[in-house]
Amino acid sequence: MVDYEVTVYTGDRVQATTLNSVHIKLVGTDGESDRTWLNSMVIFRGSVSTYTVSCPNSLGQLVLIELDKRPLILLPDDAWFADKVEIKSPEDDFYTFPVYCWISDRETHRYREGKALRIFDESNPLGQYARQQELSQRSADYDWDFYAPGVPYTIKADGPSTLPDEVQFSFTKTTEFAFTAATGLLELKLKGLVDNQENWKNLDDINDVFRNKDTPLSDYVQEHWKEDWLFAYQFLNGVHPTLIQRCKTLPKNFPVTDDMVFIPDGSNLSNELKQGNIYLCDYKNLDGMPANTIQGMQQYLTAPLVLLHKRPDDKLMPIAIQLKQTPAEDNPIFFPTDFPYDWLIAKIFVRSADFSEHQINAHLLRTHLLAEVFAVSLLRNFSMVHPLYKLLIPHTQYTLQINELARKQLIGPTGVFTQFTASGGEALTMILERLMSSITYRSLCIPDDIADRDMQDVPNFYYRDDGLQLWSIMFKFVQGVIQYYYKSDDEVHDDSELQIWIGDIFEHGFLSEPQTGIPKCFTTVPELTKFVTMVMFTSSCQHAAINSGQYDYGGWMPNTPATLQRAPPTKKDTTSAATMRETLPPKNVTAQGMATVWLLSRQSSDFVPLGHYLDEYFTEETPLKLQRDFKAELDMLSIAINNRNINLEVPYTYLDPKKIENSVAI
Ligand code: FE2
């Protein structure tokens, strides 16, 4: 007889303990062990337990293990979370089998040895068979679902609870999420705000909606929201830094002339356009979209154009706003020199349009829905032993579940977004479809996006500064891993799992549209490296930049109204303090919006920061070292960002690596 020393690591997470009987079978190139009972009574969470599995002869090279679990008589099935299994063979060879999964059923689950293998590295028939079986199960477990015409496909599921265990929220995250949502709503109910459809008579009363939930920045925004510089600053460093672009020639439908705008220091608009000091925000995607009806009242959604000027002191300031796309007498161009309420209401309409464009385009489509496409394609098409599965799976954590929840509780028929925002309901899928027709690969890669928007040298653009550094650090890490596993372009070409993965993304994420620039197959190592960097960046950094400041900038509703209930002014000198207040959403709509952005800006206690790989899917030294180097570089960047922020009146923290979550999880 020969003995194998089997060490089982159980995850240190809530409810990971099992009272069920756990069995293991070792499978090697020269045979397999009996299915062997491991525990006597209980395997506790966080425990490390060693057992012996005896066999008549050596099993040769270990290829995989099989784990299953059964309840003891009179005890129920429970769920067990295993981290990994380490095995020392009689020949003193060590093997590690990453698991990092919940096992809650009575099925037999196979786990492969940790060395990453592409499909053509599988020389052992047992490995080939196990891989084939795994992939057919994965494609059944993770299927595509049609969501709406012209919109990326989603995971097929009948709600969050029907998703496979391995992609569901942890117990901690589930309870915290439900508790946070419930406490927000309870507070509103206690204050009588949930059913109160009155308009605000005094804007200061908005303070009472969530008095104890303010952040330093939401307080600051409340104090300064009317100021032009903060209005402009948000296009660079607020929650939506991806719309603004340099403007060398004015759009034909925005007829601002030199004599209309005041430019200090004796310059004029034409000059400043030539000098590259003029910037544009154009909400044309919202043009013609039907605004929602809320509580029986027609709402208003405009598609503004905003012109900004970079002054010699490097401050960006708004200089003109047109609220609708087609120039007309009843579509005046507003200027900072207008009566204060005319100018303020124009800015409020822009901020409200920005809410819709930010939430639907930058947030929902370009992070949540695309991260889901990347996750579903990964889970469907790669074996767990594939290097790209090991590289990218940490960046998919909780994405499918948060999106299922969003489809139910935010954008479903009774969702908050559907009920209480100008672009909810019918407009949402229309806007998504329009946005999809113009989405490009370049716009998802921050170096290309910054270049295409000609935003390389605008000062004080911290989203760009931090984002480009993050991209570069991430690219180096991804390149290291990919070059370790792919020594030539031929190997990329020959990896059928990889080619099916990108083909599925092209078809179901980008609807087979070649003009997106998304590759439908990979032919070279550099092509693969860039795409994988984009996937990782979108699922972590980009989402953090777009998501984390929602309460900072939306916690004070007048700065980001989710809807407006009076039509935009068609003439100047028609807006007063009273009409401005009547334009803003009523109390219950305000409260629902604030509760939602508060919930979505909260950090969960099992938040995993960027570059922290708690689950060790890789077991080889090279990728492990690359992960350590990646984390070390991110730590350095975090220090630099914090040092920079000390001297800023409004610190930009959303791309501090310590505050970026590894995946789209909220
Ligand atoms: Fe989000």
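^ fe (ii) ion complex. The pocket of fe (ii) ion is lined by residues 363, 368, 543, 547, 600, 666 (CB under 6 Å). The chain is about 40% helix and 15% strand.
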